[in-house]
Amino acid sequence: MSKSHAALAAEFTADENRTDWHDETLWWVRQKRDKAVQQIPEWEILRQWASAIKEHTLSKLDEYLAIFEREAISNGIKVHWANDATAHNEIILKIIKEHSISKIVKSKSMLTEECHLNEYLHQSGIEVIDTDLGERIVQFRGEPPSHIVLPAIHLKKEDVSETFHEHLGTEKGNNDPQYLTESARTHLREKFIQSELAITGVNFAIAETGGFVVCTNEGNADMGAHAAKIHIACMGIEKIIPKAEHLGVFTRMLARSATGQAITTYTSHFHRPRPGQEMHIVIVNNGRSRQLGREDFRNSLKCIRCAACFNTCPVYRRSGGHSYHTAVAGPIGSILNPNLDMKANADLPFASTLCGSCTNVCPVKINIHEQLWKWRQVIAEEGLVAPSKKMSMQVLGYILSKPSLYRLIGKTGRWVLRHMPLLVKFKSLNPWYKQREMPEAPSESFRDWYKKNRRS
Amino acid sequence: MSARNTIIETVAKNKPALIPLPEMDFSQFETPVDLFEAFSKQLLVVGGRLIEMNDESGLSQLIQQEKSAGVNIINRVTNMGEPDVVPENAAALHAVDKAYISGAFGVAENGAIWVWESAMGQRILPFICQQLVLVLRRKQLVANMHLAYNRINVQEEGFGVFIAGPSKTADIEQSLVIGAHGPKALSVIILH
């Protein structure tokens, strides 16, 4: 494993002001979500329906995938299947090579991040321009997105200004978001007009109609898809919904949960290529069918990638998206990523307080915090917990099973706190002390107090 | 075995027992009494501007004035004679200042307007123009997204879109900026 969540989070929190700012900004997004949701009296009914539609779909997913494929083909769309990330990347490279294409734009697709498509194409000498503003910013900086909806939320406008000065020649020190956005607009409009091929993600794929829906605020998916002569849309198998009428439920929930908007600016429905255009869909598994077979975790496949769980999570807000070292960070990422690579992501289910706020805001009712807890058990059984954690748990388990030993340790601990407090203030031995003061040691244990007082 | 069959077979093997679709009765949801008032309010929230007119003749005059003032306009509004032909080339459309397009209907709960490909002429037009004007009749409003999808058959045309306001972004420090890639302004003309 490379650096763990805790190690990466420590790097992020080293800048206390920035950590506070990150925390407050995401909490503000969470509050906007609350306001939007409170205006919909039927919100809980919608959550129930959204969850049930997704559960139903998963229980017939093989049939719906086949129906979707059939309908999409009859709409004139070319359908490809990829069982893993490599196959997904190879399919896209093949299309690019067949048409000898060099100018490519891409709108936001977490699936292509998961598959590391840009890096893969880069190795074949092909450059992809990310067109979502936040994604373009992090692409210039050579960083991955830190949030699935707000890719550059870890950056301040001063950082963006520096980056744009370096790559787009904007005025040094001009930090005005309006000015910076306008500069990116000019730069990217040129890219759109020149592009030969556009890659987009998919928010919803409708089985009965063989079409798909893409939601953006910026209009970048549409600018790309409608300008280029080839459009490739990439989707995980879990993006399927049975019918168009189900969009009524999901389009009411997605943007409200994500940013507190009633709907995204553009909700685009693609069913057939425009005359003279080629339209491709790549349907990707990459471990999703395995997750479907895990009874405790299959529910995670209901996710619609709104990121409400990120914005509410006290750990995400204070540790930043990069500390999760995966394409999808946050609470939902911590239950999806152990399925992709349990060993590399064994730390993630522990990056949570299990407070349950993620579960409460989830529009499709995924029991996220319960799954985090269940993953911890699976990871422990597989012997993948850090040795220090494993040992301390074993020691704790032994102490808690021996009442007299427990009492002796308690007494010793209180004595040490009173007389040799420096002993517990070695941060390497006692990480709890890092951001906290140790408590005053009570003069006696509750048990001793109770024994003295119960008869009086 | 093909990737397709591998995926479909693994899914079939690993899927849970059948869970039924929910019964969805959205007629139980409260809807605004005055759809126009609710729509107008939401349109402002999403950054749109409302213009009320009696009929197409006023609109026709407005477009004539703008054209003679040198504004680069594409007019696709129906019931106003032959709509302008839209060039296919994106580079040619880049210079369009203003596109007038007929919306199919508006949604009161979020200020979104459904626009069919046939109304655009070219799919890219409502995205690439600097300013977008959507034209609606006052009676073409529904309360919410359930009723919106009831009203359309989404695969009737190759492309269709709900548009709610001008293009926007908040990717720099969550500061809202209007005019990301698409139009910097959206006006909605309501014909009474």
Question: What features would you describe in this structure?
Answer:
The complex is a heterodimer of chains A (456) and B (192). Chain A is 51% helix and 10% strand. Chain A is globular and about 90 Å long. In chain A, the strands form two sheets. Chain A has a six-stranded parallel sheet with strand order 1-10-7-4-2-3, sandwiched between helices. In chain A, strands 8-5-6-9 form a four-stranded mixed sheet. Chain A has 21 helices and ten strands. In chain A, a hairpin with a 4-residue loop joins strand 5 (204-206) and strand 6. In chain A, helix 3 (43-59) packs across helix 12 (247-258), helix 9 (157-168) packs across helix 10 and helix 16 (330-340) runs parallel beside helix 18. Among the domains of chain A are: 40-286, Rossmann fold (3-Layer(aba) Sandwich), CATH 3.40.50; 392-449, no CATH class. Chain A is an alpha/beta fold. Chain B has 192 residues and is an alpha/beta fold. Chain B has one domain: NagB/RpiA/CoA transferase-like (Rossmann fold, 3-Layer(aba) Sandwich), CATH 3.40.50. Chain B contains seven helices and eleven strands. In chain B, the strands form three sheets. A five-stranded parallel sheet of chain B has the order 1-11-6-3-2, with helices on both faces. A four-stranded mixed sheet of chain B has the order 7-4-5-8. In chain B, strand 4 (105-107) and strand 5 form a beta hairpin. The mean pLDDT of chain B is 95.
